[in-house]
Amino acid sequence: MKYKMKQFMKADISKFYILVVGIISLLLIGGFFSYAMFTVSKEKDNAINIVTGNLTALVQVDGTESNTLTVDANTIKTFTVTLSNPNNRIARFNFYYEGSLPDGVKAGYLTGDGLNTPPAATGINLEQADASGSSNTYSIRVFNKSSSSVTITLGVGVGLDYNDLALPENGHLFEEYTGDPVSEVVLATVGKDGSTFDDGVDTFITGEEPNNYIWYSGKLWRAVSVNKEANTTKLVTQWNISATTYNASGNTAFEGSYMEEWLNDTTVDGFLGNLRNYGDFIVTDAVWDATLDATSLGSITRPNGEATVTASVGLLNMYEYQSSYTGTTYGNGYLNNVLIWWTLTPYSSSNVRSVGNGGGANCNAPTYSYGVRPSINLKSSVRIVDGNGTIENPYRLEGDNDTSLSGTLLSSRYSGEYVRFGNDENNLYRIVSHENGIGTKIVSAEPLKSNGEFITSAFGDTTTFSSTNTIGTFLNGEYLTSYVDSTYSDMIEDSTTWYLGRVGSGASYKLAKYTDISMSGYATSTESKVGLLRMGELMAGQFPRYGNNINYWTLTPYSTSDVRRVDSGGNANYSTPTGSYGVRPSINLKSSVEITSGTGVKSDPFVLTLGS
User: Fold this and answer.
1) For residue 104, which of 189, 212, 204, 191 has the smallest C-alpha distance?
2) What would you report as the CA-atom Rg of the chain, rounded to the nearest whole angstrom?
3) Which residue among 47, 321, 531, 607 is buried most deeply as judged by most CB within 10 Å?
4) What is the pLDDT of residues 374-402, one digit of tens each?
5) For residue 450, how far is the Cα from the chain centroid?
6) Alpha-carbon dihedral of residues 569, 253, 221, 454, nearest 10 degrees?
7) CA-wise closest residue to 498 among 429, 427, 588
């Protein structure tokens, strides 16, 4: 194995001792990966004290001893590099790559385990802990945009204490990795079953299952297209975030609709108000083309801008949905999530276009309540710092890639993030919002199960939820004893306000909580420890489906005789309260609940404890 080891000495040493040190150094070169570092200092009596230390630089790439990094074409790969220091003194390692990187390849230092803040210097100095036998891991990230795999050779400059580390001959230091623009990465690394389609204005990602997953603000998104002029990247959520009425009867325009209001509502009740630092990430004056189009799917042309809306958040239009199918068949494209959801394209003066659970184009009255998949445009300055775009390892954005959250209050986190809560098969929840301002409302990630089967319950004898009606009795009794033990139950607020406003056909989502759409007063409410989500609330949608979901209750009345439910297709419906449907408990956690571990993604949910 080949390593570049640099040896450094303090200045002002007599030629004699330079010769001695040089001879000893030459002898140690044959020691394979070990070398002796000599620190020479002058004492006040002019005696010279020579201190030796045996430093080993063992480089392991992904757990295997190696000094080469190989990256396939059009991929991003993060290598874990382990360096060991058996010395009991501080050592500095300086990564570099030999020669020049091939065209289309970027490489950089990403992060370090136990890394101390290095002094300002050219390149990256990695400071190893000063404990005998210690080893730290670091990450090297390589972004290969070329059409073939590449291999680069890793070098390591090494020094003890604070000696400078110089550039190796014909080598280049790794720069500190600050990520690559989203627009650049998603188009260069589509991979798997995907490709692109360029219409001269936007470059669309197409195919059945491209590597275009992005995790941002507690939600899984798909990259849809990149604007060729602005280099902004349009995203849409992978799953329905809620289900709600599009607009009042006979009003199919996106502008001023209930839908536009919900998407851009900056209060705790809307989508935009629960996005993380949205001003840093998304284009807040994005233009959404909501031009009417009744053309059959497959023949839709780019809308001409007759009806555009400027807003932070929108929906996909039918042309954008159609463009994702280039090169594949309708129903098999990645934008078909097997649920029912709205687009922002009117079909006529009385109907709005939607996507059915088979992937086809439908049209329905705006009074219907279908699923909502919000769409945003990421700024050209937003960068990807981790991930490979797969569903298992989605791209992560700079500024939204927290990893060290132990001791953080859960109340500081974001809607959609996953939480470990409860027992056995029902132990995964998601953050809804911070409705009471101090705590955290969460909801079970899917309806409750028993031995792998969804349980069902009647709502009650009337359409009014309470702690003593049929479903309320179950939630505030058996649920707390059988599904959530005392460890978790103690984290729950003893009493939460649950709003019981009615949302009928063509009514605004705001009426589920407020007396009118001006939000000037609260609707009828009740108090209990455990409740349900209301219609139009965040996370009140079905995801993921794939044939493994059940209709479930909300606590919102549709009328004096029916209660709103969310169907397995992702749309909101209604039923008599004596019907039997699934149960998704919702609770408010106390403000003192802290995170002990986890990153909030589905594969690594937050683990909680009750703080003081």
Assistant:
1) 189
2) 29
3) 531
4) 999 999 999 998 888 999 999 999 999 99
5) 30
6) -20
7) 588
Q: Are 106 and 142 in contact (CB under 8 A)?
A: yes
Closest CA to 475 of 555, 532, 557, 556: 532
d(CA 90, CA 52) in angstroms, rounded, equals 13
pTM over cut 0.90: no
Q: How far apart are CA 547 and CA 223, in angstroms?
A: 25
Chain-centre distance of CA 3, in angstroms? Answer: 37
Cα–Cα distance measured from residue 84 to residue 143, given in angstroms and rounded to the nearest whole number: 26
Within 8 A by CB and 6+ apart from 6, the residues are: 94, 157, 158, 159, 165, 166, 168
Nearest CA among 261, 194, 260 for reference residue 225: 194
Residues 261-277: tens digit of each pLDDT: 999 999 999 999 999 99
Cis ω on the peptide bond leading into residue 605 (within 30° of 0)?
no
Contact partners, residue 455, CB within 8 Å, separation at least 6: 447, 448, 449, 582, 583
Locate 278 and state its tokens. Answer: 């949205």
* Residues forming a β-bridge with 458: 580
Rounded-to-integer distance, Cα 195 and Cα 175, Å: 31
Query: Is pLDDT of 589 > 70?
Result: yes
**Angstrom distances, CA of residue 543 to CA of 78, 220, 293:** 30, 11, 29
Report H helices in 106-253.
182-188
CB of 92 closer than 8 Å to CB of 127: yes
